[in-house]
Task: structure prediction
Amino acid sequence: MMKMTKQTRRDLITYGIVIVFYIVMQLLDLAGILSFHVKGLLVPLCYYAIAAVALNLVVGILGDLSLGHAGFMCIGAFSSSLFSVTLKDSGFPAGLRFFLALLIGTFFAALFGFLIGIPVLRLNGDYLAIVTLAFGEIIKNILAAVYFGYDEEGLHIAFKSFPLQGEGKMLINGAMGIQGTPTDSTFTIAVVILLLALFIVQNIVRSRTGRAIMSIRDNRIAAEAVGIQITKYKMTAFTISAAIAGTAGVLFSHNTTTLTATSTYFGYNVSILILVYVVLGGIGNIRGSVIATAILYILPEMLRGLSNYRMLIYAIVLIIIMLINWAPAAITFREKYGISAYLARRKENRTPVSDMGSGKGGS
Result:
């Protein structure tokens, strides 16, 4: 019987944590314990976790700092919502419509990730962060200003409002965005997509491509010297990350009936918030991104009753998590007394039965 590798065990534990969380929430819902407000947080929690997993592929595995993932979410949200609104009253099956919208949102986010990556990924460090941040703001502002609709004369697109002839429909109405998106996102669908995102990212990390990407992160010059194509692997990581962020945007757009390209939903603060989830969960730690998102997204909502002290408590929790993850003393303590260290000591002290009495006989 083949032994399970350490990395496979870690991956299965990550999937198990998500599945257990889903089962617990479903049981609490069936028991009538979950409030309507808490149930409304479950889908947003999942798409922010998906966005954090996507960003960790760039920040943690590739080693580049990107602040434009809210822009990729925006592209995925608007492209998928536009498709769903167009087919909403056509009698198209809702399940198939949402599946196609998911593919469309993912595709367009990946496409823009590829196109933006061609000039952007030649930069590094702060320059890359600034350019990706600017990209996210440009996308948001363009979608907030565009008017797109159709009538008897065909399709129309402009940056100012225009009248429609006959029985027409305005699909994107400037700052008012897209109205009437079907709310197809459910907690079950969101968890399935989160598990799929985890599966994709964790398998990339373990693959030859992932090892090449991590070698670029560790030492770009040495990676290039041994023949690794830097641009190719950086583009691969960036495009896949953008596609997964676009999937999060699809879940977002189909969780609300009115989609607007505002700073509240797709501004640079959202990109920074996702980066906070990645950093506090551990850069390069995919499971940590999911756990940090769950804690830090739900915590402010749970503390909403403490209006005067809510953000103070939230800030203290951020500091504590940062110290636990990154303080040298905390890292040393985990290495000595953590669960992994405890299991390693038990393994060293355990004497296999098959080895008892074995050994070469003496004279």
User: Anything to note?
Assistant: Residues 7-302 form one domain.
